[in-house]
């Protein structure tokens, strides 16, 4: 049978398989044991303050009491909309202490999207950020009569732990319900795999709406370790990331793939405390160099299988020839590589990845038909009543038994670490009055970054410009779901069956991209900087106010941008400046500032030469 068993550690396989996951008490009970063992230890630290375990426990218990007074009962869903902060940790633990499950929401999402999630989950109570940074506030929601009874929970005898939303192909997000046993399995594997102890110092990097935040939090709280929230400005600058990790003596850190690739190329002090750099969310394209000083671990997972399914250390190499694999299945996970008939394929053959074991979530909230379609009875294992989740991902088994990721079977795309259903984006675009039909697809991986392209058909003679379409989408979807390219077509191509023929969609050329309206006014220096930025992004042109990162830029391209500016203009723009001012206009202003500063200290001849060189570039 073509299956891969479980591993208890990223550095070696374990033949125990799904049997490694055993029955356990509730997660919050195990966190209470860590609190009792060392109540004075640091639990959460953030720029706005910190909490010891005793303080965390006291505030979470107080929140649980308040939730019960408001009528919250066991297994109920309670909305949690807080920023990355101590209040987020208090909120999640307090909801679990009340016997409920938390609905993890990112308060930065558009209001309409948040309102849908609140309505979909039928939450009667919302825990949210408050003016007091170390504790959340609670308020009752105005829920229509009978709304809670209309919520369709996936069938499961296990208590729920949390609900988190992913992009949905129908134009609405899908709520994935994860149970306590699934979450505990993840926590216990993580603690064993990375040797987590009370002395560890870990990061809380992911946004509350991204399930990696679950993975970053509970393994450490259950071990009595401390969790550290990095300032927002640090998350935008890989060099600042490294310095922050070193300064705060972080031992285990999770960072998104693009940032991890940059961190691997930096110089690290020999006394850095970091033991593991964990990454995931996108296809890792580079390997760490020899002698880095810590282990880089590549992880693959889906929300429907509790964050992480496979994991493995990335072998340091001097000249990598292929992308690193995604590792071996974790404890409690069984994975199968199958063909279109869901029959296992031979070793080395590509196929769809199916996931089984205790890690599989209960299913989708209020979507029983989709749950039945994607969560199948396990016909490949021997556990009665077990289920398999169809990932839609293509993989291949490596000679050592690990897995290689080959991409998506459908039109779902990973963008900046987030999984995006392109139909969700298309549905949002179709709500614009001047758009009759559209389809959204993933364009090629220019410089390793996947981007979205929207093929749009106008409803009449008017074609909205890029700025108008982006402003429309910003009210509906997160910014990572806004396409980089918009291609106008007279009609969408269809096949003999009347369905859209995606293979016939034109490959977006550089000429097809419309220049934003703000392109009419730009200085010579802005024009020169714009050419440099456009070439790096693989675009024919960009507007002076367009965001480098929203157009597909990332930390590695930002470093290349700095090198190009240094080579062609002669000044060294900092990486922080690129992150803080990512438009052509802002970059040109920074270049001008640096040039003027240098000219002040130059001789008259040297100053004239610098001005002449810059003028020739422009």
Q: Give the overall pLDDT as a whole number.
A: 85
Strand content: 15-25%
- Work out the helix count: 17
Number of structurally distinct domains? 3
CATH topology heading of the largest domain: Rossmann fold
Name of the CATH superfamily of the largest domain: ANL, N-terminal domain
**Spans of at least 5 consecutive residues with low confidence:** 6-23
**How large, in whole angstroms, is the Cα Rg?**
25 Å
Q: Main beta sheet: strand number and arrangement? A: 7 strands, mixed
Helix amount: 25-40%
What is the class of the largest domain in the CATH system? Alpha Beta
Summarize the structure in words.
- With 618 residues, the chain is of the alpha/beta class.
- The protein folds into 3 domains: 3-405, Rossmann fold (3-Layer(aba) Sandwich), CATH 3.40.50; 412-504, GMP Synthetase, Chain A, domain 3 (2-Layer Sandwich), CATH 3.30.300; 519-617, ACP-like (Non-ribosomal Peptide Synthetase Peptidyl Carrier Protein, Chain A), CATH 1.10.1200.
- Helix content is 30%, strand content 23%.
- The protein contains 17 helices and 27 strands.
- The strands form 6 sheets. A 7-stranded mixed beta sheet has the order 7-6-4-5-8-9-19, with helices on both faces. Strands 1, 17, 18, 20, 21 and 22 form a 6-stranded antiparallel beta sheet that branches. Strands 12-13-14-15-16 form a 5-stranded mixed beta sheet, covered by helices on one side.
- Strand 25 and strand 26 form a beta hairpin.
- Helix 8 crosses helix 9 and helix 13 packs across helix 16 (584-600).
- The radius of gyration is 25 Å and the shape is globular.
- Residues 6-23 have low confidence and may be disordered.
């Amino acid at each position: 049978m073509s299956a891969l068993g479980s591993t208890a550690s990223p550095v070696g396989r374990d033949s125990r398989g799904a049997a490694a996951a055993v029955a356990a008490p509730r997660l919050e009970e195990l966190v209470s044991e860590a609190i009792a063992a060392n109540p004075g230890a640091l639990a959460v630290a953030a720029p706005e303050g910190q909490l010891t375990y005793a303080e965390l426990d006291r505030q979470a218990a107080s929140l649980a009491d308040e939730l019960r007074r408001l009528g919250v009962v066991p297994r109920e869903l309670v909305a949690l909309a807080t920023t990355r902060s101590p209040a987020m940790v208090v909120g999640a633990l307090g909801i679990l202490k009340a016997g409920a499950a938390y609905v993890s929401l990112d308060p930065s999402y558009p209001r309409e999207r948040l309102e849908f999630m609140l309505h979909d989950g039928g939450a009667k109570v919302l825990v949210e950020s408050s003016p007091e940074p170390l504790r959340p506030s609670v308020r009752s929601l105005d829920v229509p009569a009978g709304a809670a009874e209309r919520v369709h929970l996936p069938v499961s005898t296990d208590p729920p732990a949390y609900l988190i939303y992913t992009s949905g192909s129908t134009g609405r997000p899908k709520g994935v319900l994860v149970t306590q046993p699934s979450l505990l399995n993840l926590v216990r594997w993580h603690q064993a795999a990375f040797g987590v102890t009370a002395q560890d110092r870990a990061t809380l990097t992911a946004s509350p709406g991204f399930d990696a935040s679950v993975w970053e939090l509970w393994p450490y709280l259950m071990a009595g370790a401390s969790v550290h929230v990095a300032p927002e400005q640090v998350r935008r600058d890989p060099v600042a990331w490294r310095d922050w990790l070193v300064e705060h003596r972080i031992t285990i850190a999770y960072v998104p793939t693009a940032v991890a690739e940059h961190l691997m190329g930096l110089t690290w002090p020999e006394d850095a405390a970091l033991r593991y750099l964990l990454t995931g969310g996108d296809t890792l394209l580079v390997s760490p160099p020899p002698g880095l000083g810590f282990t880089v671990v590549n992880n693959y997972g889906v929300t429907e299988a509790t964050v992480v399914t496979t994991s493995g250390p990335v072998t340091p190499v001097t000249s990598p020839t292929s992308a690193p694999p995604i590792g071996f299945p974790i404890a409690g996970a069984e994975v199968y590589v199958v063909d279109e008939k869901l029959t296992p394929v031979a070793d080395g053959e590509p196929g769809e990845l199916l996931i089984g074991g205790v890690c599989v979530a209960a299913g989708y909230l209020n979507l029983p038909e989709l749950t039945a379609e994607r969560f199948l009875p396990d016909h490949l294992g021997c556990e009665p009543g077990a289920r398999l989740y169809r990932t839609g991902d293509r993989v291949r088994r490596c000679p050592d038994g690990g897995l290689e990721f080959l991409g998506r079977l459908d039109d779902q795309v990973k963008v900046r670490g987030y999984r995006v259903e392109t139909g969700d984006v298309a549905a949002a675009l179709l709500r614009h009055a001047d758009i009759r039909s559209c389809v959204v697809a993933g364009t090629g991986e220019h410089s390793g970054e996947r981007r979205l392209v929207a093929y749009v058909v106008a409803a009449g003679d008017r074609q909205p410009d890029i700025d108008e379409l982006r402003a429309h989408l910003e009210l509906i979807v997160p910014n990572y779901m806004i396409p980089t390219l918009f291609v106008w077509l007279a009609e969408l191509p269809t096949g003999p069956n009347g369905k859209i023929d995606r293979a016939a969609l034109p490959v977006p050329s550089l000429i097809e991209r419309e220049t934003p309206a703000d392109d009419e006014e730009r200085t010579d220096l802005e024009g020169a900087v714009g050419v440099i930025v456009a070439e790096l992004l693989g675009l024919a042109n960009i507007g002076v106010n367009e965001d480098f990162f929203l157009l597909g830029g990332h930390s590695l391209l930002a470093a290349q941008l700095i090198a190009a500016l240094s080579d062609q203009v002669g000044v060294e723009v900092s990486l922080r400046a690129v992150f803080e001012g990512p438009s052509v206009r802002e970059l040109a202003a920074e270049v001008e500032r640096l040039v003027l500063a240098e000219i002040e200290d130059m001789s008259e001849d040297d100053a004239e030469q610098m001005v002449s060189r810059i003028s020739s570039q422009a």
